[in-house]
Amino acid sequence: MFVHSIITEHGSRHDEFALVPIGDIHLGAKACDADALKATIQEVTCSSGTNWIGMGDYAECIAPGDKRFDLRTIEPRFLPKLDDLPNACFEELRGLFGPIKEKCLGLLVGNHEETLRLRQSQDVHGALCVALGAKNLGYDALIRWTFRRKGPTQRSRPSSVVLIIFASHSTIAGRRDGGKVNRMQDVSRNFDADLYLFGHGHAQIASRSVELSVPSSGSPKLKERLRLQCMTGTYRKTYELGTLDYSEKGGYSPVPIGSPVIKITPWAPPRQRMEVTIR
After folding, report:
1. Can you list the positions of beta strands (E) in 55-172?
2. CA separation for the pair 27, 36 (Å, rounded)
3. Cα–Cα distances in Å, from 105 out to 31, 42, 145?
4. Which of 22-36, 148-162, 192-206 has the lowest mean pLDDT?
5. Model's pTM, two decimal places?
6. What distance in Å separates the CA atoms of residue 253 and residue 263, rounded to the nearest whole number?
C-alpha cells in the first residue's frame, strides 16, 4: 500500500474542483473505445480546476504466449507490433496522457499490468509513472488532498481543509450492481476516508452515506461527514463486432463507456462537499 500527500492552493471558499478517475482502458483490445478516452482527456485538458487519477488496467497487456491471448480481439493497428505488444500500447498511452500529466494525482497499477510484471518481468506501469512524472500509487493508496486558501495579504494566515481519498484498482467485480456496492462498502470500513474509488468492475456506480460524531473538545454537538464510494467505469466495450471476447462468452451486461466526474467543493457543508456525475 502507498500513501501520498497533495496540496492545492486557491483563493476563495466558493472555488470548485473536479476529479476524473480514468482506468480500465484496455488499450490494445479491439473493444477499447479510444475515441471516448481521447474525449475524456480533452475534457480534463480544457477544464480549469480538474485533476485526474489513474485507476489501472490502462492496456490489455495480454501478449502472444499467454493462454488468454486471442488474435481476433487485438486492435488491428497493433497487429504489426505483436512482438512487443504491451510496450507498444504504453508508448501510445504516454502520448495520450502527456497533455494532462501535470494534473495527475497519481497512477494505480491494475491486475493486467501486475500480471505482466509477475509473469514476464515487464514493469510497464512503473515506466509509465516515470515517463509522466506521476506518483506510483501501487494497487491501493491513501491520499491526503489539502485545499489551502491563500490569505488576502501576506500577513494573513492560510486556512485549509483536507479530503482523504482511498483509491484501489480492487478485485471487486460481479454481475449485479448491488453486489458491487456491498463489496465497496465492506472495503470502505477498513479505511478512514471521505472518498473511495474502485476500479476493475467496469461499472459506474456511486454510493453515499453520512457518518455522525461529536467533537473531541468544546461544546458537544453533532458533526456530519459525507462518505462517497464510486466504481470508476471503463473504456472497454463488453461486446465488439467480429470478436469472441471473454465478456461475450461470460454473458456480461453491456456497460456505459467513460469516467464519472466527482465535483469537490472543499468548503461546503458536509452533505454538499462532493457530488458524482455518472456518464
Report:
1. 104-107, 140-149, 159-168
2. 12
3. 27, 17, 9
4. 148-162
5. 0.95
6. 28
